[in-house]
Task: structure prediction
Amino acid sequence: MFLSMSFRLRTEVEALNMVEAMGAYSRHRTVSLLKPRGDGKGYRLVIAPAVSGQAIAFGYMKSLVELAQQKNLPICDQCRNYESKGGFVKHGTDTSGDLENLVRSCIVEDVTGFMIAKAEVRRTSAIQFSYMTPDIDSSDVAIDPQFHVRAAKPGEKPQPFQVESGTAIYVLGVALDIDKIGVVPDSNGKPKIVVANRAERVKTAIQAIAHLLEGLSFGAKKARYLPVYDVVGAVAAISHPVPFMVSPARISKDMDYVTKTVLRASNYVKLFSDAKETIKLFYMDKENVVGEVKAENIDITKADNVSELVLKIIEVIEKSLRD
Ligand SMILES: [Zn+2]
Result:
């Protein structure tokens, strides 16, 4: 099974995107985006602030640690103590390593992957995050690359500093290869389950996505500047056996993201009918931009918020892991 999701987040991204400042200013991470021109002829290049996929992955790992500790799931000492170690080391400096043992003994390494160069042991991440980028198709406002922050210089007393906030709808994509969790290739390259309670691990890996988004576990400087933040829309798909990616949760003139995903999913199921492809879709829409959606060959479930959306997804996945 493969889970793909795209979220619409209304956020003051300024505060989520702080780069560590040693000088007086810190610049934002920016991305170049193509915006369709109003006259329908071609595109215009727009430079906009963004949050890197790596920053989001870091927040996700923090969420995993927190949930694993609360639920008493296996987690290694290095990941448990990531704060004092300055991040997630994941045994990267070890000289030996056993893939199966590492996966079994730590949910963070199981779900988010690792590499031990000297031991030539690596695991690609089961979870993937896109950059969090503004939805420039539906909005023209608050995309100004000139945002900056004045911070105290080292050795000086902290100076009062200004934070300019920019509000925008940001889009974030997440993909999770569920078949990978708790599984390593055996000597013949066939998948082999190596954890005792795989369903619980899968559930926790999905819960951590909600924890990340609802619990605001990414972004910097929250102690002094908690951003205004809301998940206003989302679309998600569980596909099997051929992975299907939802459309990015952008609003364009021609079609909303849920309708677009439903149409694509419906055709995808027809295309892979010989492989018995199935897709279940889930969405939430606080902005009321999504019209009535239905397709003969796709199950579609609506939710009111992120927690409900994730709960419904977990129900479906747990059931199919049991069956
Ligand atoms: Zn670990």
About this structure: Residues 2-156+160-322 form one domain.
